[in-house]
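Protocol step 4 of 6: structure prediction from sequence.
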Amino acid sequence: MKNYLLSALAFTLFASAGVQAQNCAEPTNIQIQRTSVTHATINGTGSDLYDLYIKPAGDPAPTAATAPRPGFNDLAFPYTSNVLLGAFGYDLYVRSQCADGTSAWTGPYYIAPYVACEAPADVNVVRTGHETAEFTSADTEGIYDYYVVLEGGIAPAGNWTGPNHNGRNDVQWPHQRTDLVASFSYDVYFRKQCNVSQVSEWTGPFTIPLYEEPAPVCNAPEGVTLTRTSDTTATVDGADPAFTYQGTANRAGRALRPYPMYGMEAMTMPHTQENLVAAFDYDVWFRTDCGDGLFSEWAGPFYLPVYEEIVTCDPNEIHFNVVRTGPREVRITSTDTEGIYDFRAGSHGAPFSSASIHIDNISLPFVQEGLNEFRTYDYWVRKSCPAGGTSEWMGPYTINLHEDITESAKVSPNPTHGLVKFEGFDAVSAQVMNYTGRTMTTLNVVNGEINISNLTPGNYVINAVDAKGNVKSFKVVKK
């Protein structure tokens, strides 16, 4: 049945097809617009009259002997065909009629199946100001008409053409309407243009309400940091310093007190809060003061713990000194005289793990005796931390017992009444110790000399240090 209808609609063969004229120009610029389920408009150029041959898409093309069916010959353009079936596509062939015959058939020109022009369904209407509104849709490529009336007014007629005060043609989304009256609300209708002669039905109304000023926004503070700096003080920072804030606090775990705490009524960042209770930890809340009595919501709680003093156990802040004070002894000192220390010592160059001398839980200064005066030792030291644990091991500190003590050939005169001159070592400072390991004086070396005339007669060890920190020890007798 389908093939019969399409064939009957498409063409009828005449017994004779007429004469094809050699100089009859073929039609050009053929344009087809499917305007409805049954209609299509056909246009073109070439001559005054034309013959048409319409057939189901894909069927064989007409030959020179093929004639159009009655009613499809001697036609002027534009021409509207009204016998199509909406779900089907067609092939169109066209030829010109001339005084001495016809041109050859040209084509095929495709007549697509009819696709309905759907009314827009996802238009969003927003009153953006007293006199403005914005229309948006996900379809940013489509072309639309719209029509605005006062709320409850008459909807547009189907044949409205515009544009006029009410509506506009040929708009795309987003679109701004800028001439509304502040005291009126409106209804707006939309339709889509699917082609030059096909539009959808009107859809609407969409209400454009009266404009309402947005409520002022006051944002809660973000990025707040709290640091307990002592038993009674804390610092607050991190929030935008351009704003003023209020704060409130309560014992940790308790509810918000929705009013500012003393000293936190008008804070700028950073802020120092005083008068805290040493034994209390706190939950703290903050809000932004936006002015004119407008405040944000309270943000928090932020936890503020009890203050704990941080005790440094950083080996980089501990300065040790290991020097020889006798033929078989060394003295270990430090700038930290309160700490408790562990020591390890072993043969010079051997790994730490093979250290044979272990000395633990000592305070400084400390003198180690009974060493081998013909050996060189490496020392390592670490501190016991007040909060538990220990620092990293520091070292090695190298002591050469059989070379560090230099007899009278290296300092002169020796014995001396006071003047000591260093030979073969560019000392810049010198520590003078008695044989019990007590430091008697520390002197700057000037022109390679020091003066110890103020010391009582006796035996001393001078630990001389050069500009690179190298240490050499000299045994000296003071008269």
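Step 5 (inspection) to follow. The chain is about 5% helix and 45% strand.
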